[in-house]
Design a protein that fits this description.
By secondary structure, the protein is mostly helical. The protein contains 4 helices and no strands. α1 (6-24) crosses α4 (80-93). The longest helix has 19 residues, at 6-24.
């Protein structure tokens, strides 16, 4: 398990907000922690998969989409805070996220 610092949490949040802003063609200031990625921002599930790939490259992680998918069955992504929390767990636990 990797340690996650406040600096890493902030990097992950910024990466996610910047990505959604670019992909959804909105200003990052329009995104809040309470925004729903699909309903409020117009995102879709493929964007989440692309974010996993970006994070995997940035943080040198080997994460299987199947592991993340199984975890998401228990923890749906209703807000941007949920997305950030899942990415922090992916960073910390990798494929072991499925056991949380």
């Amino acid at each position: 398990m990797r340690e996650i610092t406040e600096e890493i949490k902030n990097e992950i949040k910024d990466m996610i907000f910047d990505y959604y802003a670019e992909e959804c063609e909105i200003d990052p200031s329009e995104i809040s922690l309470d925004s729903n990625p699909q309903d409020d921002l117009g995102g879709d599930s493929l964007m989440f998969v692309e974010l996993i790939e970006l994070a995997s490259e940035k943080y040198d992680m080997d994460v299987k989409l199947q592991s993340v998918g199984k975890y998401l069955l228990k923890a749906p992504l209703n807000t941007m805070q949920d997305v950030i929390d899942v990415f922090c767990k992916i960073y910390q636990y990798g494929n072991e996220i499925v056991n949380l």
